[in-house]
Design brief:
By secondary structure, the protein is α/β, with parallel strands linked by helices. The chain has eleven helices and nine strands. The strands form two sheets. The protein has a seven-stranded mixed beta sheet, with helices on both faces. Strands 6-7 form a two-stranded antiparallel sheet.
Length: 300
Amino acid sequence: MSFLHPRYWLLWFGIGLLWLTITLLPYRTLIKLGGGIGTLLMRLLKKRAKTAVRNLELCFPEKSQSERDQILEGHAKSVGIALFETGMAWWWPQWRINNLVTFTGLEHIEAAQKQGKGVLLFALHSFCLEIGGRLFSSKAQLTGVYRPHNNPVMEYLQVCGRMRSAKLITKRNIRAMISALNDGESVWYTSDQDFGRSKAVFVPFFAVDTAATVVGASILTKNSDSVVLPYVIVRKDDGSGYHISLEAPLDNFPSGDDEQDAIYSNKIVEQGIMKAPDQYMWLHRRFKTRPNKSDPSLYR
């Protein structure tokens, strides 16, 4: 079906409006405008909002309602901001990107490169993930692992946008990921969403004792000459841009025990989330898969 088919006209109108907005407005204005749009969107997307509320209840039972509400308020703003950040990542010229980021831990990338090793960037589903890939690519070649979009227009747009700054591998192409790591590339990878029972173990994630967690990081590292670096991007509260932090390579990973590796990797994800909990994608049903099919859903 042609991309110009009438069923896509509304989508193209929205994309054009996004392009025009991010082209004309300065960064700080986009962040403020995005925050307002996100707050409105989450009032309309009631099912997603309910999921975010439930995830925070499950993960942080020790926090007060007001503390969780504060996270939710920032989370709603991030939903709208992420729309503009995606446009920035895909379409902004390099001169508008250059001054938006600071880094710590780049020496770990450089050390791995000197040793001829690949780098598995162990990331998480932050709302800043799109802009993060563009910003990181200013310092090192990036290979991103992604899920193809069901909408062909969106798939075309996201592939074109992301390939400005990264090579792409679909999430099921394990061989290509291993090959990229063996070629010394930096591969962006996440394991913090619920992908079902296949190749998953049930281990703690925050206060939930049995969260389905894939063991892909163990498989990739076991079968390649690579190191695993925790990677986190945070949007700065002062509106000046972003900070990307890279931690030292994980010790004894993989250990040979997939369950222990999953526990370890979830702890790394938790630490990354806590750097900016409102910027994490709480609107996904992280705990939809239960250890037994007969177990009641955690989402009521």
